[in-house]
Predict the 3D structure of the following.
Amino acid sequence: MNILAQDIKYLQGVGPQRATLLANELGITTVGDLLTYYPYKYVDRSRIYKIRDIDGNMPYVQLCGQIFSFESIGEGRGKRLIAHFADGTGSIDLVWFQGIKYAAKNYDCRKPYIVFGKPTVFNGHIQIAHPEIENAPEDLKAKARTTGNLFEEETINPNLQESDFEAQPTFYKGLCPSYNTSEKMKRGGLTSAGMAKLTANMFKLLKEPLQETLPSYIVAQHHLMSYDEAVHNIHYPSSPEALRHAQLRLKFEELFYVQLNILRYVKDRQLRYKGIVFNTIGENFNSFFYHHLPFELTGAQKRVIKEIRADMKSGRQMNRLLQGDVGSGKTLVALMVALIAIDNGCQACIMAPTEILAEQHLDTLRAFLGDMPVRVELLTGSVKGKRRTEVLEGLVTGSVHILVGTHAVIEDNVLFHQLGLVVIDEQHRFGVAQRAKLWMKNSVPPHVLVMTATPIPRTLAMTLYGDLDVSVIDELPPGRKPIRTIHMFDAHRPRIYQLMHRELQQGRQIYIVYPLIKETEKMDLKDLEAGFEEISRAFPDYKVSKVHGKMKAADKDREMQHFANHETHILVSTTVIEVGVNVPNASVMIIENAERFGLSQLHQLRGRVGRGADQSYCVLVSKYEIGETTRRRIQVMVDTTDGFEIAEQDLKLRGPGDLEGTQQSGMAFDLKIANLARDGQILTLARDTAQAVITSDPEERNQQNNILWTRLRQLRKTNINWGAIS
Ligand code: ADP
Ligand code: MG
């Protein structure tokens, strides 16, 4: 039987109770699960310190010496046991508050020990509480024995010499694993050290080398450590060098299989689904391009439209991600691509994450199209009754050419005559499952264009959206002045008001945004209400709107509309305005408690201004005392307006797990060892290698690759998240 598949219960040191703990707390049920429960750090125990060299600031030290007396102090709860410990260069106290009996019984004054723990200073004397203690290695004992006088009982101040404890040459424990455990586990004896015992027992079981999990040609090609060696060294590194090799090997493998899974899915999708072929650029596109387009397209917009056009006539279904910073003109691209679909007898559907955005898209598209014979309709939760029936009918007959809507458009009763293109705006609110639902609306799946203004770092995109081709609009329409970003403290309010007054006098409008992390948090709402009151008082000559998530949708829309129509001058709101809203006359964005926002979110908010030709400002207000990371985050915003740069920094400062959208992306993945923020190079290597496998062996006939497909099947079975992709 395969040892890795064995129930963890039967591993030495586990038993039924701990097995339950392992299963509940870590999801470990088999020996194989334990094998892939990697340490999160390593403690260097290759070095033995001298007592005279240690101080209370060292994280951990390892000492070699002898206990020369025990002392019991205090009563009841305050009771503790102290062992006076010396190594010939000085002495320290080992202290126990718990497990006193055990310690007194198991350690004695005669033997040399290796002691490990964190030194702290207490009453001017260094002590180690609850040290890990083990017998010193054999040859040291032999030496100690020959130095007879050292071990006389009751020796209070033994005449120890430094040379009596020269253990380094033979004692080498090296890098010791630290495992994450929970409080519950610790109570059940599964501390990090407890886990280390289990992994040690596991390796005793694994007598045969573990089977290789990558084809030998790939291992050779990248000079990787063997799988067996890598898992041994990841738990018990034989040297720092070996640890690095083991990490590289396991990270590569992990990322490789994620990529292989994605790329194989892409290949299957291409084989399974033919794409509708859009042959012609016809009447609508040309008429729009030559007669209705109010401005010259940017070079980036032209390039992107060409890329999309090439996809749509290729005979393959398009699945493309369009990344473009806020204000880069994605809506126009969507419209022009939709016109191509219409020219080829198809309908297009544009999906936005909120009603406000959907309505805004509707207005924008209609304004762009002017008197062109293209019918654009809206479908959201608020479109009801007769209106709704009309829209639904128009979709079935084909008289509606472009449908703009929220996720209401994916409901089952929304049927199209011939849906040829789906555009999803602000992707991070939609999951893969929802995307897939739209495909089903046509016998041949429509082309899919996913648009996002949240720039995604390459490494993340390759994993989260690894099944999509990527186009980038890396150019803003001409004539935009970069937004000036300023960091100010609460105390600077008079200066902020000055700036506001100046801009208002010039007829501009202002956003003030408050954080609202959960819509239920009363505190936040209070901040916003107080802010609203204060602003209304401070600017009596101007009208102030207020919008937050607790309001009814209709009220929210009305207030937004007032602001958009310039009927109000200042909009005080929570992050409901985050995505997409377009009020070109607004020139100041003030973000309160900026320290509470993520970088991408700040960038999105900032993108609400700077949409006209005049100078715009973004003021990030924070309290005076902020942490170092927060200060750096805000500084990134001050230093750059480049969304990609910001996204990279965000990934570095926060780590990929926290990035907005990763949870909802639908293509969730569970990385055990690789880190998308740091392992970009390994990821690129892994993706290229996986692509080479798919390209060179599309029919999966190469015997050498069998191991890959078997392993992939296994991984997909055991890792639920991976299943999400197909
Ligand atoms: P986003 O990419 O954030 O969705 P929008 O599509 O809302 O950006 O475009 C922002 C603004 O820029 C809109 O007012 C739009 O009309 C305008 N715009 C788009 N393309 C161009 C262009 N080529 N030249 C000038 N203005 C443009
Ligand atoms: Mg947009």
User: Anything to note?
Assistant: The domain at 47-172 is CATH 2.40.50.140 (OB fold (Dihydrolipoamide Acetyltransferase, E2P)).
